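Question: I have long wanted to understand how a fold can be written as tokens. Here is the record:
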Amino acid sequence: MTKTVLTYGTFDLFHIGHLNILKRLKEKGDRLIVGVSTDEFNAVKGKKPVVPFEQRRQIVEAIKYVDLAIPEENWEQKRLDIKKYDAKVFGIGEDWKGHFDDLGDEVEVVYLPRTAGISTTEMKRVLSEFDERHVESLKNTLDTLSQIVKELS
């Protein structure tokens, strides 16, 4: 009998933390279904992804641990998808600890630890600091380094 694991996320700016959680979730069953939050649902959650939904869905679906990527369109969908896909495990990052305990009447709820030192929020913060002045300064530095390498060659 197939043991289906279900998870959800935005998966914006896909990174090693995302990959790690998907790998660990796949180890908990035979089939991993991932709900990728749509741009519209992210707006409801107050998030604005950098990468559009369809591209995020395709990236997630291409991961070898993922058997199916579906759109996540609202909060209520989780309970419906548990029934629809006959999920036995609902897993998500520990930053959501306690938020989905109510699903425990239908499925085993697992909160997994985050990968230390990486987060989409932090990546976005660092990227936002690269305003035009910083980019111009970085370009000038790279041009100078390039000139030094040419002179030393």
